[in-house]
User: What shape does this take?
Amino acid sequence: MTDLRHVTEDQWREALFRFLRHAMAQRRVDYSDIAQPPSFAGEPKERVALGNKVRRSMYDPGFFLALLAAIGLPGVTLEEVAKFLPEKRADTEAGDS
Assistant: This one.
């Protein structure tokens, strides 16, 4: 497994997006399902706005936890999210010499 200490913030954002989309697909949940109360912490969200926010993966921990609850995920480990890290390209692994 990749040394997770060297994963960039952008790589974590991409992994979070992929992880959340995978979790939603497994549960057959889409943004429309979780955008309205009581699914999303009692605060209605527009489906498109919610999708855009998830895609950017730039949100505070409270939003992330509310999203996990709305999707129906009781807990998530770092290893589960790390499985969705983007693959490094061969030319970046070898270094730019």
Summary: The two ends are 25 Å apart (CA to CA). The chain has a mean pLDDT of 81.
